[in-house]
Amino acid sequence: MGSPCELGLYAEDSEMARRVAKRIIDDALGIEARYSRYREDSILSMINRKAGRNGGIEVDEETAGLLDYAQTCYVQSDGLFDITSGILRKAWNFQSGKPPDAALIESLLPMIGWDRVVWMRPRLAFKTSGMELDFGGIGKEYAADRAATLYLEYGIRHGVVNFGGDIKIIGPHPDGSPWRIGIRHPRQSQHVMASIDLGQGAIASSGDYERCIEIDGRRYGHILNPRTGWPVQGFASVSVVASHCLIAGSACTIAMLKESAGTDWLEELWLPYIVADDKGRVIKRHC
Amino acid sequence: MNHRTRLLRLLMLSAWAGLFLSSLNACSLKVAPWERGNLAKQQMALDPDALDAALSRHAYGSKEGSSGGYGVGGGGCGCN
Amino acid sequence: MAATNSTATSSKLTALTMAALALPGMVAKSHADSPPAMPQIDTNFSRYEESGNRMRIETYQAAASLAVGDNLGFRVNGVKDVVTGASPVTIGRPGPSCKGPSNGLLVQCMSGASIRDERDAVDIGANYYLKDVTLGVDVGRSSENDYTSDFFNVDTRWELNQKMTTLATGFGYASDSVWAIQHVNGQNVREPGVGGDKSTHQGLLGITQVLDKNSLIQANLTYANNAGFLADPYKWALVDNVYLRDSRPGSREQYGVLLRYVRNFEELNSAALHLDYRFYSDTWGVDSHTLEVSWFQPLAYGWQLRPRIRYYTQTSADFYQPIYQTARLDGNYSSDYRLAGFGAIAGGIQLNKEFFDRLRLAGGVDFYERQKGLGLSGGAGTKLDNFSYSMYSFSLNLKF
Question: How much is the ipTM here?
Answer without folding.
Answer: 0.91
